[in-house]
């Protein structure tokens, strides 16, 4: 599987420099577009995590920015420029619940009791854009594809639950990833 985007640095609209109308609770909430290509033809569902490993020295753990599970591949559009690549459009995180209700999004690190944010689902169970406090950070988007949906994952699942379900799914999921940079 190949994961790509039209950028290597997350554009301002999806990150720390996002305009006020692209934020909720002070957090950038408009998810960035990307492409998924060369998926195993037997796969029917996508799942992903978007995390910040460079946050470990800052806060003591890898910050979770976005998690998605059980997204039916058939519900996605192909990229107009590449008939094989699936296109994840901008602002997909906020649009997905209405467009594809069977897909679920998990909690991000804003949901942590140690962070102290309110319980607004728009902030704690959707995309949170990069906002590195100390220097530019490298963020990792990891995508998996499976033949069957992962059972037992509901809206607001935790990332570790997704990883356990991937391990227990009875197949070796197709997978790929990419790094992007978030500007400080």
UniProtKB/TrEMBL annotation:
One of its GO terms (molecular function) is protein kinase inhibitor activity. It holds the Pfam family PBP. Keywords: Protein kinase inhibitor. InterPro entries: PEBP (IPR008914), PEBP-like_sf (IPR036610), YbhB_YbcL/LppC-like (IPR005247). It comes from the Bacteria. The keyword Metal-binding does not apply. NCBIfam families: YbhB/YbcL family Raf kinase inhibitor-like protein. Belongs to the UPF0098 family. This is YbhB/YbcL family Raf kinase inhibitor-like protein. It comes from Bifidobacterium colobi.
């Amino acid at each position: 599987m190949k994961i790509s985007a039209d950028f290597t640095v997350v554009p301002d609209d999806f990150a720390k420099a996002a305009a006020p109308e692209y934020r909720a609770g002070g957090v950038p909430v408009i998810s960035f577009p990307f492409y998924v290509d060369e998926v195993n033809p037997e796969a029917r569902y996508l799942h992903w995590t978007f995390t910040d490993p460079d946050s470990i020295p800052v806060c003591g753990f890898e910050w979770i920015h976005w998690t998605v599970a059980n997204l039916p591949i058939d519900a996605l559009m192909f990229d107009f420029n590449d008939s094989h690549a699936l296109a994840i459009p901008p602002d997909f995180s906020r649009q997905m619940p209405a467009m594809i209700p069977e897909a679920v999004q998990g909690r991000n690190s804003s949901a942590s009791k140690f962070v102290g944010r309110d319980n607004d689902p728009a902030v704690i169970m959707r995309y949170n854009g990069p906002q590195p406090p100390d220097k530019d950070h490298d963020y990792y988007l990891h995508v998996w594809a499976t033949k069957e949906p992962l059972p037992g994952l509901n809206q607001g699942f935790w990332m570790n639950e997704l990883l356990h379900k991937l391990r227990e799914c009875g197949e070796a999921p197709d997978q790929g990833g990419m790094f992007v940079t978030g500007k400080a």
